[in-house]
Amino acid sequence: MRYSQLFGKTNKNAPHDADCANARWLVQGGFVDQLAAGVYTFLPLGLRVLDKVKRIIREEMDALGAQELLMPALQPAEPWQVTGRWDDPGEEVMFQFEGRGGKKFGLGWTHEEIVTPLVQRHVKSYRDLPLSVYQIQDKFRNEPRAKSGLLRGREFSMKDLYSFHLTLADLEAFYQKAAQAYLRVFKRCGLNALMVEASGGAFSKYSHEFQVPTEAGEDTVFSCVKCNWAQNKEICTLKNGDACPPGCGGQVREMKAIEVGNIFQLKNRFSDSFKFDVAGDDGKPARVLMGCYGIGPSRVMGTAVEVHHDDKGILWPREIAPYLVHVVSLPAKDKTEQERVMNAAEGIVSDLQDAGIDVLWDDRVSVSAGEKFADADLIGCPLRLIVSQKTLADGAVEWKERHEGGSRLVKSGDVLEEAGTFAKEPYETTVR
Question: What class, spelled out in words, does domain 323-424 have in CATH?
């Protein structure tokens, strides 16, 4: 992609109402445009990031054996009235309104009321179980105070997975597999997520949240410095410095965090409401048990910015960066040298693209080197390749990794091989 042709450019001024890093840098970097509080348009750069997060999620959900579907966001009131959630929490959470003929509708903020009767219509026997289905869809939530950029919106992207089981043992086994898949998703997105015990509500003793430690977080969690134990402050009776409850010998540390996913063993909460039974292997009716598992792709994107940024812009993790490589061709002293620089840059871009590497090329010729570097910092692609009259005199390009200081020259003939190696290297997640 040539930057000169890209729809949505960088902005040197921070939004006046930006209350966190992602709200600032995503707008300034040309990733999103705010339509209203908690409502964003994803511009081409931002949509590329969001789609890459979704691709990672799809790969991990498919590996679990889950099947993707897409349910309506516009939902009639009736299934919500069956479970009692049309009135409780009702309009506090759900956008509700009347259509023609006075028929009541709402915009989905979750999909248990839709997926349960859907699966019920198709699953009749124990032979049809276990089953897991998922979707990635925009959700709507009547937030009293939308804030924090993509972290708390009124319209947001959500992946929800639902599993259906005949036995509790089968539900628990799948629940653990799903938890591990979630941890893989977040690691691939450049996030060190903790699996945190939280209130199970009416469903079970505990649910589990996936929390990313950062001072930008709204949640408070307590985590052992030595083992994997962690609990949300809402249910934790410990204080900072207490001994780890499992007895590993470590101490509990209090920290702020952002929730990027959660999983619940719903058990029979919704199958009871819809009287969802199947014929068991003994021929008798058996009540279906359920689990639900949510990840917010847009929230993951916003969290990645909160964790990976500096005072110049974003530092995208490799698997979700809009482009892996940002080629920057610098202005030259005369027309002949400028053509030489542009031809060399175009050749590098073509070679990288032919090798399957995503490339953004800043091909502008009337913009200073300083402005180009500032824009590259804002956008935050992992690898910057600078082509200039000076580097070409050395038969090289300047190689600069966004998350590291300094730069080095790489011979032009070695760029493709080194970039290919860079693309395959594992990204070490670090909290900044």
Answer: alpha beta
